[in-house]
UniProtKB/TrEMBL annotation:
Pfam family, one: UQ_con
Protein name as it appears in the record: Ubiquitin-conjugating enzyme family protein
Organism taxonomic ancestry: Eukaryota, Discoba, Heterolobosea, Tetramitia, Eutetramitia
Species of origin: Naegleria gruberi (Amoeba)
Residue segments, region Disordered: 1-23
Compositional bias ranges of the Basic residues kind: 1-11
Length: 853
């Protein structure tokens, strides 16, 4: 295929997708011969124990009649020991030792037409036989021949013949429709007598044309002795099995094979993919392009598109070829009838994870497909790995998508589609499942609240006395049990690769195992699937998830109840289900804090949950800094939820839970001074970080919250004396707000007003406060960066700094650069504690002119 060639079905393959359309199709003799030759090689490599088969030799007398076939053989370069007629096969069926046919060989002939595999072959017994499925003592009639499909092969026929012979040996099964005991015994004697005649005829049968007799059968049976040193984990065995499963069901070749895909869109002009389904039968590109094979799979499902898979592990040419065809296939899947689009990396992220997820879903729905579905999922997984190795941009897009999911508070269906598809991206990212566990499970359950309420509407009514919390847990699980099973299976699959630290290491591991997983991994996956199938409550669900994740989350019954209540509330806010009842109560969930002992463990927890790897400046000197940072962030999120919903019912419980927290990071409470007073009077707060809640901010209310803060703490000097840091970074504070800054903080060390438009008026209020020696005598850090301060304000703040002898760091970047800047430099020159980096910050002013230090 040329580099610019696109995959487009031709007229023959576009005809229709009727599953039975192949019955009216015609093929060429060349296709039939190629197919039969491939099947002959497969039978030689994988012989059956009680059945042998081989094409008949071509007689020299009929060589001229077969000249056309012989020329085809030479063109296809068939490598056989002698010239054979692949349109007629001789077959031997040997009776099993535990049946009446022990030691007897039945000889048969299979004839194929030039329209094979579209048309079923005919089977005739050379040794006459009395059997329910034998007509006229020699013509075999089997159901699967009447319902023939091109996916069947010679190997399938031989297995059916072997089963057919075993069924005939069971007298009870053959005569099962006879109820009368006397009649049964009579018929039994007749049947056994007929079988004696059949066996004697088979033992006496000789075919000199092929050199066959009962003692020297031709074709001969192949005995496969088990090797004592054989191990299932042997790489050679795995390679044989992996390659044998990568053969097209139609052409029986392994050159550029893949899967048929059924893709549904909203309409003929739409580019949006509504659903995608993978047919689990291997199909070659040649068969998909040139023959009407849609709907011929074993599942009797039609398909509209095709995607290739990798069958070689270290063949760079093969990998590049498959990736090139994959790009065209993904572009076709993303296009519509009216609009063709080119390939883009986003198509890999959108389609391949959906195909992997679909394979796992088929395992849950139809257990008989477990092995084939798992192998298909692994093949798409490996294809995505190779795509990422060739196009690194895919990895960047995946990391960006997951990072946005973790950091964003708005995880709506519009921004993040199907969560099962989304979770399949984790193995290809820099993130781990542990990073998403809590927020992912919450969002997953939130989206299925609607399904729960369809069956049990009363669950959302928390005032209903008839529905207990235990009922909510039980009913909720019953409503979404299947979805939870699907989620658990997806998580287990991605956790198989959790120990690998890079895409390259996963690729190397899969290449060493011939593109699949070792049998131990496959067996453990099937065992885990059995455990998931038995899952019958939330306790088992979270137990399985925690085992996979090595975490201890939602272990208690109360925590599950709180989780469900939170998800119902969140679903209501996001509009996932209808309006709540009039007596619906907004609910807040208090997070379970991890039980950690060392600072290193708290650091890992901060990095895992909050993506923070560096301590902020105000915590660097604190003894248990990482624990304080975790408590600060966790309490901040809880307070934000309370403020958003105006629900502070659980405030006392929150204060009790965060009793060790010394850092308060929160939004304004819109005038709720009682709340802030209670927090400050109950916790040993030493650092306060107040951030304005931008959604609620209105110009007419500016300053009110700042006044509320000072009003809440001015009357309690003992608590105020503990505060060491006040951080008002980007809090929408104006100059008039600072008129309230008149309360002394004797222990205050850090004061941050950066990114607030306080201007000259605001900094003048602050300067009047700071120039008094008794106010903030221990101040070591002052940040007035980007505060829109002009000449007058610079002069005032410069004069006030003379009183702050302990000041070490002063930041003034991003303001105007008037001559009054020299006032600051002059004042700081008298400070014995000032550090050199302060002047680096000052020198960032524009038009610094002749200023020298």
């Amino acid at each position: 295929m040329s580099q610019h060639q696109k995959i487009k079905p031709n007229a023959r393959s576009k005809a229709n997708s009727d599953p039975n359309s192949y019955k009216h199709c015609k093929t060429s003799p060349i296709l039939a011969l190629k197919r039969l030759y491939s099947e002959f090689k497969y039978i030689q490599e994988n012989p059956l124990s009680h059945v042998s088969a081989c094409p008949a030799p071509i007689k020299k007398k009929k060589a001229l009649d077969n000249l056309k076939i012989m020329n085809i053989y030479r063109e296809m370069n068939f490598q056989v020991d002698d010239e054979r007629d692949f349109m007629m096969w001789h077959v031997n069926i040997r009776g099993n030792s535990d049946t009446m046919y022990d030691g007897v060989v039945f000889h048969a002939v299979i004839k194929f037409s030039e329209n094979y595999p579209m048309e079923a072959p005919t089977i005739r017994l050379c040794t006459r036989m009395e059997h329910p499925n034998v007509v006229d003592s020699d013509r075999i009639c089997l159901d699967f021949l009447e319902e023939w499909k091109p996916i069947y092969s010679v190997h399938s026929i031989l297995m059916q013949l072997q089963t057919f012979l075993y069924d005939g040996a069971d007298v009870t099964r053959v005569l099962s429709n006879i109820q009368d005991p006397k009649t049964f015994e009579e018929k039994k004697e007749e049947y056994l007598s007929a079988q004696e005649w059949s066996m004697s005829h088979a033992k006496a049968y000789v075919n000199r044309k092929v050199g066959h007799s009962n003692h020297l059968p031709s074709p001969p049976f192949v005995s496969r002795e088990e090797d004592d040193g054989f191990k299932r984990m042997n790489c050679k065995v795995e390679k044989v099995l992996a390659n044998s499963d990568s053969v097209c069901f139609f052409t029986k070749t392994s050159d550029l094979v893949g899967y048929g895909i059924n893709c549904k869109k909203r309409n003929a002009k739409s580019l949006e993919i509504c659903s995608i389904y993978c047919s689990l039968d291997i199909l070659s590109l040649r068969a998909f392009m040139n023959y009407n094979v849609r709907g011929m799979s074993r599942e009797k499902t039609s398909f509209t598109h095709w995607i290739p898979i990798l069958t070689e592990t270290n063949d760079e040419i093969h990998i590049k070829k498959v990736l090139h065809v994959t790009k065209s296939s993904l572009a076709n899947l993303s296009s519509s009838h009216s609009k063709k689009i080119d390939f883009s990396p986003e198509q890999v992220i959108e389609i391949l994870p959906r195909l992997m997820s679909n394979c796992l879903l088929q395992m849950v729905d139809q257990r008989e497909k477990t092995t084939n579905a798992f192998m298909a999922c692994l093949r798409f997984f490996r294809l995505m790995i190779e795509a990422i190795k060739e196009i690194p941009e895919i990895s960047e897009l995946i990391n960006s998508s997951i990072d946005s999911f973790i950091r964003s508070e708005e995880r709506s269906k519009e921004k993040v589609g199907d969560l099962l598809n989304f979770v399949m991206l984790i193995p290809f990212s820099k993130f781990d499942w542990k990073d998403l566990y809590d927020i992912y499970v919450r969002e997953f359950l939130t989206r299925y609240v609607k399904n729960i309420l369809k069956s049990y509407k009363e669950i959302a009514d928390f005032q209903c006395a008839e529905v207990t919390d235990d009922d909510r847990v039980s009913y909720s699980f019953k409503s979404i049990r299947k979805r939870l099973k699907e989620l658990t299976l997806h998580i287990y699959f991605i956790q198989i690769f959790s120990d690998f630290n890079s895409i390259e290491s996963i690729s190397k591991f899969m290449n060493e195992n011939c593109g699949i997983l070792p049998y131990q991994s496959i067996d453990s996956f099937i065992e885990k699937l059995n455990q998931i199938e038995k899952m019958n409550d939330f306790k088992t669900f979270f137990k399985l998830l925690n085992e996979m994740s090595s975490l201890h989350v939602f272990e208690t019954h109360d925590s599950v109840i709180e989780l469900l209540k939170s998800c119902i509330q969140s679903s209501l806010q996001k509009g996932y289900h209808g309006k709540p009842p009039t007596n619906f109560r907004k609910h807040i969930v208090l997070e379970d804090l991890p039980k950690l002992t060392s600072e290193q463990e708290w650091k890992i927890a901060c990095n895992s949950k909050w993506r923070i790897s560096k301590l902020p400046y105000y915590l660097k000197e604190m003894k248990d800094a990482w624990m304080q940072l975790y408590l600060q962030k966790s309490m901040s999120r809880t307070l934000r939820e309370m403020a958003e919903r105006n629900n502070f019912i659980l405030l006392s419980g929150m204060i009790s839970r965060y009793s060790k927290c010394k850092c308060l990071e929160t939004c304004w409470f819109n005038g709720c001074q009682d709340v802030l007073t209670k927090i400050l009077s109950s916790l040993p707060i030493s650092t306060i970080i107040l951030k304005h809640w931008n959604i609620e901010y209105q110009e007419k209310d500016k300053g009110a919250d700042f006044e509320t803060f000072f009003y809440s703490i001015k009357s309690d000097y003992s608590r105020r004396a503990l505060i060491e840091s006040l951080i008002f970074h980007d809090s929408k504070i104006t100059g008039s707000d600072l008129s309230s800054f008149y309360i002394n903080f004797p222990s205050l060390k850090i004061l941050d007003f950066s990114n607030n438009k306080i201007g000259d008026n605001g900094v003048s209020y602050l300067a009047d406060f700071l120039k008094k020696l008794k106010n903030c005598p221990n101040l070591t850090y002052l940040d007035l960066s980007h505060c829109d301060i002009g000449e007058r304000g610079t002069q005032r703040i410069g004069d006030s700094l003379l009183a702050k002898k302990n000041l070490k760091t002063f930041k003034f970047t991003g303001n105007k650069s008037p001559p009054a800047l020299f006032s600051i430099a002059h004042s700081l020159s008298y400070s014995p504690s000032i550090e050199n980096n302060i002047f680096t910050g000052i020198c960032m002013f524009e038009n610094i002119g002749s200023f020298k230090y």
